[in-house]
Amino acid sequence: MSVKLLLDYAAANPELCATPQYLFENFTSRIALGTVDSGLDPSGLFWQARRPSDAMSICRELTSFSAFMCSQYNANELNPMREANWSERICTYAGRRYKSKNSFLTHLHPRARSWSESKFVPNNNSLTVRPPKVEAGTSTQFPSERFGDLILKGFAVNPHVANPWLRLNVRDVLLTLLLHGGGLRCSEPFHMFITDVTTDPVDPRSALVRIGHPSLGEISWRDVDGALERTTRAEYLMKHGLPQRQYVAGPMHAGWKNPVLDGKYYLQVRWATPEYGHLFLSLWRIYHHLYLRLRCRPRHPWAWVSFGKGREGEPLKLGRFIKAHDRAVRRIGLEPERHLGTKPHGHRHAYAKWLLSLGLSREIIRRFLHHASISSQDVYTRFDEGELNEAMSAGIDRLNTKDEPRIFQESVGAEFGFEGIDPERGELFNAGAQLKRIWEAQKNTTVP
């Protein structure tokens, strides 16, 4: 595609083909800015201006293709290399080091090699206009003020039952508590075994949830002879003809992003507040009672099962929980959209923002989110527009409580004719009329 564009441009502008370098220089300009000037295009191409990233990609592809043709067939290069000046070399070196900083292959690009490779740069080094820097998207967290409605109203599927807790879909409430109050990724609870929940010895009213690694996590079980065995989960699943859910395709799949584990080998849920652990344990006992009352005993170790007709006792699929969560969100008047934070992953964002509001260090937040890199939490702790506006309002309120000079002072405004300035609120009233009178007065003034 890039070569075709260059050939089309050369055929439409034969007068620019004196040298390959001159042709390429004009081509890069027209790719970025378009071929239309003042509504006219003598070349007849009528190219529109391309996005900076697309223009840079086309120019890089042509530079690489030209270098290949030169090495294979001794052709003239469109954009030959030249010796870099000092500033170009410093910038090129810094760019190479920045690019390889987080690469797994950094050891293949030592500093000395990057410095030597920065000695030469393409002749047309400023290929196109660089794309503007855009602030990364804001955090898409679930609105915490609606979490109570989601639990008590969204998951209320049996409204006529006397026991208020039995009105709820307890299983889905428990899963949502793990996401919102424990900060788990949506797929991680689906690797839980039924034995992964116990009473916390430190706080007997709270639940201690330790999710074993899908392959290396340990499990104790009894064989057909009643002998106690202790194996890894991978061995247990293999002996019972069950798949590891992170590897199987289809509805049974549940991802595992290799979070940093808390022990050998398990992922411990750390509750945002103790109340989440207390509520989880209370609901877990109800769920466990329903689990034990299943007519068909589950032939698998996973904690979350289906209670629907024809699927009773089967492992719960991740897709079914996501659909149930979407229905619960709609019941409380919200739309399940990712950019609104109302999808299941929005709970993890809310958990991270809660940790940030507590003033915890980035290292502590990394441990709670089970990240390997401290920079991984940045996507969870970005500020949204509401938080930016609140920060600005809080700053203005702090300023108003002090005897600090305002942006617009009454004396300064009067000096320049701005009687319409409110010195307290810093607002302009009829400023346009004031400026017009000053301008008319200046025009009528004779310079001596």
Summarize the structure in words.
The chain is mainly α and 448 residues long. It has 4 domains: 1-83 and 129-134, no CATH class; 85-118, no CATH class; 144-380, Orthogonal Bundle (hpI Integrase, Chain A), CATH 1.10.443; 410-443, no CATH class. Helices cover 41% and strands 7% of the residues. The chain contains 15 helices and 9 strands. Strands 3-4-7 form a 3-stranded antiparallel sheet. A two-stranded antiparallel sheet has the order 1-2. Strand 3 (197-199) and strand 4 (207-212) form a beta hairpin. The protein starts with a helix and ends in a 5-residue tail after the last helix.
Helical amount? 40-55%
Number of E-state strands: 9
Mean pLDDT: 83
The quaternary state of the protein chains shown equals single chain
**Unreliable stretches covering 5 or more consecutive residues:** 407-413, 420-431
The helix tally amounts to 15
Largest sheet, spatial ordering of strands: 3-4-7
Provide keyphrases for this structure.
mainly alpha, hpI Integrase, Chain A, two-stranded antiparallel sheet, 3-stranded antiparallel beta sheet, 448 residues
Indicate the topology.
Elements: H1 2-12, H2 20-33, H3 52-73, E1 81-83, H4 86-100, H5 111-117, E2 120-122, H6 147-154, H7 170-180, E3 197-199, E4 207-212, E5 218-222, E6 228-232, H8 233-239, E7 266-268, H9 274-292, H10 318-331, H11 346-357, H12 362-369, H13 385-400, H14 410-415, E8 421-422, E9 427-428, H15 431-443
Antiparallel strand pairs: 1-2, 3-4, 4-7, 5-6, 8-9
Helix pairs in contact: 4-5, 6-10, 7-9
